Structures are given as structure tokens and as C-alpha cells.
Amino acid sequence: MIVGIGVDLVDVARFAAALERTPALRGRLFTEAEGGLPPASLAARFAAKEAVAKALGAPSGLRHLEAEVVREPGGRPVLRVTGRAAEVARDLGVRRWHLSLSHDGGVAVAYVIAEA
């Protein structure tokens, strides 16, 4: 059963400019493993974090670092959810996350499904 769906779209150039303008932003938004990726990949991961919040119903107290995009050995992106986001997911009965990322034509998109 689907508990929630979230989608987010990010303008890559605008996002890259924000990271350049405010270097500390990278540390507030991304884990150490995520932080060194190129701008288009970071924009897609930021979209994923926003999509997770939407899939959970946008509860208060979530932090961007609580949703991390990691890669399986074959390269497939998967979500690792911790902290308040994990608590909310547990309360909603979320047992599995589905994630799709893409970036092309100057935009990055993430689609998240939370499944019970």
C-alpha cells in the first residue's frame, strides 16, 4: 500500500549558484558521502530530500541530512532515512522506499514513493 508520494524539480544552474554563493549550505543539505558530487547530481539529491518530506506529509522538524541518497553496488540510488524522518515514516507504517532520479536539460527531478 502506498503511504505517500513526493516529487520535486530543481533548476540545476540556480542550485549550483546557491551552493557557490553560500558554501556552508553544502554541509547543511548533504552528508559527507553526497557532498562531493557534481552540481546536477547534488540538485537531484536535494530534490529527493524534498520529495521524501512531501511523501511524509511535510511534518515539522525534518532535516535535509535525515534523507540520504546512497548507491547500491549496481549503481541504483536508494534512500537511507534517519532521525525525525525515520520516526515519522515508522509512525506511518513505511517499510519500503522507491526512488527515481533524473537530470537533463538544466533540471533535476526526484520521485519518491513511501510504501507500507
Automatic annotation (TrEMBL):
Residues 4-109 form the 4'-phosphopantetheinyl transferase domain. Its cofactor is Mg(2+). Mg(2+) binds at residues 8, 50. It catalyses: apo-[ACP] + CoA = holo-[ACP] + adenosine 3',5'-bisphosphate + H(+). Keywords: Cytoplasm, Fatty acid biosynthesis, Fatty acid metabolism, Lipid biosynthesis, Lipid metabolism, Magnesium, Metal-binding, Transferase. Gene3D superfamilies: 4'-phosphopantetheinyl transferase domain. It is found in: Cytoplasm. The keyword Lipid biosynthesis applies. Its main location: cytoplasm. It holds the Pfam family ACPS. The keyword Lipid biosynthesis applies. Its EC number is 2.7.8.7. NCBIfam families: pantethn_trn, PRK00070.3-2. Belongs to the P-Pant transferase superfamily. AcpS family. Transfers the 4'-phosphopantetheine moiety from coenzyme A to a Ser of acyl-carrier-protein. This is Holo-[acyl-carrier-protein] synthase. It comes from Microbispora corallina.
